[in-house]
């Protein structure tokens, strides 16, 4: 790039808070990631199904990575900042100081993570109400949403937390508050995780029915009574204090935030696909699904009219793309499940040493090992007798059953690297079969989907990508920039700056296609049979549970 051209470019900072790390990127107006940095953040697991973090630890990591990516850049070229984060619950008191969300009283641990499942009893009672707001979350609320977590706090930490709480933030909204001093919430967070509706706002009857009438009394000040659309400018931009923390000039535009998966969707789903011979080329954006795959996976599909899909969250109006309804399918453990299966195998130390000796990651090595043992077969056919049901952390979509457990059928006495590689392959296939289950449910309800757009850490694994193409029978588009979630966050900052007239314009200019992976249609019959077995596995699980429940 010529220095003259570089000097005229406009830049935006995207900050992404994932489950285990915070990342930042400096992105130019064409969607190119110019600089990138990441920093791990701490997770506490004080007891099973309790996962906690620290908002102070998260903000410190945000500051560290942002300073790294803007170092040496002309600050006058940086036009806006956008945040995205996991949909975790942050609790602070009336002076915005952290409040403990745990029995130990550790105030710095003031974040209940998205994947925390402590509120099982509370969500069951909420779902038993069959309140009308539940129709906008696929008919059944997830334990990962905020109302059951709030109810858990009230019932278990009434004096130490509930009565002292001044504000309950979704993590993306906490970050925009920290940056601007404004407590406005994003339409994305409150609609997707808190039961706010874009046409009617908060439903007093719902909160009273579930025992959280306290929130109604103060006109929802604690959970948000000022709501902005994603990408809308918040307040007067960066406060002097936040600007100093982040290494940026005060007053730079800060955007209303997004949940991390939605930022990933924003970064990929609107890309210009002309010339790639894709079925979605001359179709509206509603023919696409963005799949954001990391620790967990989310499947984001949009529609022009509301589509109610059983077991799939939404429809949410303007929660990701303004003017369109969003449905969100998901799998609670994908990258986490693959790690669990691989690292828990007896042959993992052997894998680790051989991968290190070859200077490859363990997953690159496993992919190569599968190529060695497949002989004349296609790699995927190696699992003809090995099948996995992937719900080791419950089923989010489309069965919405958090009590479901993982299953592996077809184990032998083998303890070697070959067996580990096969389990790894079968796990990836199970995740892809779960995606097919979600897509078929969405299509049966009225979606018309012909192309997948993948981003997130797992999209870097070619085996994961090819299995999703083969098993769903749909082409997979990978973005030019691997860090699509960060590009999505930067798109928010670009919109807040006023440099683009709409999110749609920014998506088309800043989202770029990198590679297309086509399905191998010759393998269709094999994967159709695998899918039959996949659906039988959950039938059998429910059958044997029914038998045992009668004991």
From TrEMBL:
<dbReference type="InterPro" id="IPR006003">
    <property type="entry name" value="FGGY_RbtK-like"/>
</dbReference>
<feature type="domain" description="Carbohydrate kinase FGGY C-terminal">
    <location>
        <begin position="290"/>
        <end position="496"/>
    </location>
</feature>
<keyword id="KW-0418">Kinase</keyword>
<dbReference type="GO" id="GO:0019150">
    <property type="term" value="F:D-ribulokinase activity"/>
</dbReference>
<dbReference type="InterPro" id="IPR018484">
    <property type="entry name" value="FGGY_N"/>
</dbReference>
<comment type="similarity">
    <text>Belongs to the FGGY kinase family.</text>
</comment>
<dbReference type="GO" id="GO:0005737">
    <property type="term" value="C:cytoplasm"/>
</dbReference>
<feature type="domain" description="Carbohydrate kinase FGGY N-terminal">
    <location>
        <begin position="11"/>
        <end position="267"/>
    </location>
</feature>
<dbReference type="Pfam" id="PF00370">
    <property type="entry name" value="FGGY_N"/>
</dbReference>
<dbReference type="InterPro" id="IPR000577">
    <property type="entry name" value="Carb_kinase_FGGY"/>
</dbReference>
<dbReference type="Pfam" id="PF02782">
    <property type="entry name" value="FGGY_C"/>
</dbReference>
<keyword id="KW-0808">Transferase</keyword>
<dbReference type="InterPro" id="IPR043129">
    <property type="entry name" value="ATPase_NBD"/>
</dbReference>
<dbReference type="GO" id="GO:0019321">
    <property type="term" value="P:pentose metabolic process"/>
</dbReference>
<protein>
    <recommendedName>
        <fullName>FGGY carbohydrate kinase domain-containing protein</fullName>
    </recommendedName>
</protein>
<dbReference type="InterPro" id="IPR018485">
    <property type="entry name" value="FGGY_C"/>
</dbReference>
């Amino acid at each position: 790039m010529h220095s003259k051209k570089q000097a005229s470019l406009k830049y935006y900072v995207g900050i992404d808070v994932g489950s285990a790390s915070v990342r930042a990127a400096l992105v130019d107006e064409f969607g190119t990631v110019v600089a990138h940095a990441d920093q791990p953040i701490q997770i506490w697991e004080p007891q099973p199904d309790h996962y906690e973090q620290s908002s102070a630890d998260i903000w410190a990591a945000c500051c560290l990575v942002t300073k790294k990516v803007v170092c040496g850049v002309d600050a006058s070229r940086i036009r806006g900042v956008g945040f995205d984060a996991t949909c975790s619950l942050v609790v602070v008191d009336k002076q915005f100081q952290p409040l403990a969300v745990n029995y130990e009283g550790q105030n710095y641990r003031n974040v209940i993570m998205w994947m925390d499942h402590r509120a099982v009893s509370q969500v069951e009672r909420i779902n038993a109400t069959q309140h009308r707001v539940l129709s906008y979350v696929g008919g059944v609320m997830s334990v990962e949403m905020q109302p059951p977590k709030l109810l858990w706090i009230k019932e278990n930490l009434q004096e130490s937390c509930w009565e002292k709480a001044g504000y309950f933030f979704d993590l993306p909204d906490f970050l925009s508050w920290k940056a601007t001093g404004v407590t406005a919430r994003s339409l994305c967070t409150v609609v997707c995780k808190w039961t706010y509706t874009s046409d009617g706002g908060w439903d007093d009857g719902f909160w009273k029915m579930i025992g959280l009438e306290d929130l109604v009394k103060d006109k929802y000040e604690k959970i948000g009574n000022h709501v902005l659309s994603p990408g809308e400018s918040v307040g007067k931009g960066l406060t002097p204090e936040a600007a100093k923390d982040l290494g940026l000039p005060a007053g730079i535009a800060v955007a209303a935030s997004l949940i991390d998966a939605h930022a990933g969707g924003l970064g990929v789903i609107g890309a210009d696909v002309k010339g790639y011979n894709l079925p979605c080329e001359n179709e509206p954006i509603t023919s696409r699904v963005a799949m954001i795959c990391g620790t967990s996976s989310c499947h984001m599909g949009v529609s022009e009219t509301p589509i109610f899909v059983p077991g799939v969250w939404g429809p949410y109006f303007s929660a990701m793309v303004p003017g369109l309804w969003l449905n969100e399918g998901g799998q609670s453990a994908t990258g986490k499940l693959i790690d669990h299966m691989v690292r828990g195998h007896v042959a993992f130390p052997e894998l680790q040493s051989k991968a290190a000796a070859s200077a490859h990651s363990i997953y690159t090595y496993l992919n190569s090992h599968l190529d060695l043992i497949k002989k004349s077969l296609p790699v995927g056919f190696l699992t003809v007798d090995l099948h996995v049901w992937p719900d080791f952390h419950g089923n989010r979509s489309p069965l919405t059953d958090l009590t479901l457990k993982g299953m592996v059928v077809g184990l032998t006495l083998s303890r070697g690297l070959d067996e580990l590689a096969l389990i790894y392959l079968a796990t990836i296939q199970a995740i892809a079969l779960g995606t097919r289950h979600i897509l078929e449910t969405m299509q049966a309800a009225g979606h018309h989907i012909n192309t997948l757009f993948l981003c997130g850490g797992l999209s870097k694994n070619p085996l994961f990508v090819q299995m999703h193409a083969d098993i769903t029978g749909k082409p997979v588009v990978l973005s030019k920039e691997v860090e699509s979630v960060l590009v999505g966050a930067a798109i928010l900052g670009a919109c807040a700056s006023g440099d683009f007239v709409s999110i749609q314009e920014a998506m088309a200019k800043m989202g770029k296609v990198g590679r297309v992976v086509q399905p191998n249609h010759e393998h269709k019959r094999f994967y159709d049979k695998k899918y039959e077995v996949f659906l039988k596995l959950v039938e059998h699980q429910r059958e044997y549970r029914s038998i045992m429940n009668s004991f």
